[in-house]
């Protein structure tokens, strides 16, 4: 947690993790640019995006890191997690394997991060109701067991994306203030 210049009060680093294809890049571009693309293969080389928002009268700059495809090779590095105060742990509600793999992501996250890190479990692609194979109850049950926050989102329909990031940033602010 840094406090650097007059443009913002706090800079918080967030990481987005989860299996390839669950919509990590899409959530990030929805939140930082309000954009969505059906063929988002844009992240190669991009390390992070930022957005500055006001939370409880403080100006918070969120620096949000994307894996840039590293997760495909299970090569998400220590540097990726370093200094993160929040994490978005993402699965796809129609992809059972992405839900099963949450255990592995959480283990890796906990090995590399501060015990106070704020974690938001995200069931993305909530617009694909007809293809759903993970129920809301299963998602929230996992979150409860692992003591994380939980929301279902759709980067496509722009539902709950802003709410999920703002919830994490507010919770971090509550921890540091
Ligand atoms: P990443 O590999 O986790 O970064 O996933 P991407 O952001 O590249 O998304 C993978 C694919 O899922 C892309 O074709 C996206 O357009 C699509 N996608 C991402 N979010 C959503 C969503 O909320 N709903 C639907 N229907 N498709 C999505």
TrEMBL record:
Q: What is its main location?
A: membrane
Q: Respond yes or no to whether keyword Thylakoid is given for this record.
A: no
Which keywords appear in this protein's UniProt record, sorted alphabetically?
Answer: GTP-binding, Lipoprotein, Membrane, Nucleotide-binding, Prenylation
Q: Which domain of life, per UniProt?
A: Eukaryota
- Does the entry feature the keyword Lipoprotein, yes or no? yes
Which residue spans traverse the membrane? none
One of the entry's Gene Ontology molecular-function terms is:
GTPase activity
Q: Which GO terms describe its cellular component?
A: endosome; Golgi apparatus
* Membrane topology listed for this record: Lipid-anchor
Q: Where in the cell is it found?
A: Endomembrane system
The entry assigns this protein to a family as follows: Belongs to the small GTPase superfamily. Rab family.
Task: Spell out the protein name for this chain.
Answer: Ras-related protein Rab-25
Give the taxonomic lineage as stored in the record: Eukaryota, Viridiplantae, Streptophyta, Embryophyta, Tracheophyta
Q: Which residues of the full protein are shown?
A: 2 to 178 of 219
């Amino acid at each position: 947690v840094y406090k650097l210049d007059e443009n913002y009060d706090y800079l918080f680093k967030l990481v987005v993790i989860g299996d390839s294809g669950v919509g990590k890049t899409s959530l990030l571009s929805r939140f930082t640019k309000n954009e969505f693309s059906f063929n988002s293969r844009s992240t190669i080389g991009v390390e992070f995006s930022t957005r500055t928002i006001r939370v409880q009268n403080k100006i918070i700059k969120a620096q949000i890191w994307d894996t840039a495809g590293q997760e495909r090779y299970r090569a998400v590095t220590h540097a990726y997690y370093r200094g993160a105060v929040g994490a978005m742990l993402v699965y796809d509600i129609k992809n059972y394997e992405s839900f099963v793999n949450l255990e592995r992501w959480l283990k890796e996250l906990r090995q590399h991060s501060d015990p106070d890190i704020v974690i938001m479990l995200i069931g993305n692609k909530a617009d694909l109701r007809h293809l759903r194979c993970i129920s809301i109850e299963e998602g929230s049950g996992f979150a409860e067991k692992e003591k994380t926050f939980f929301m279902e989102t759709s980067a496509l329909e722009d539902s709950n994306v802003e709410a999920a990031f703002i919830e994490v940033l507010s919770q971090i602010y509550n921890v540091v203030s």
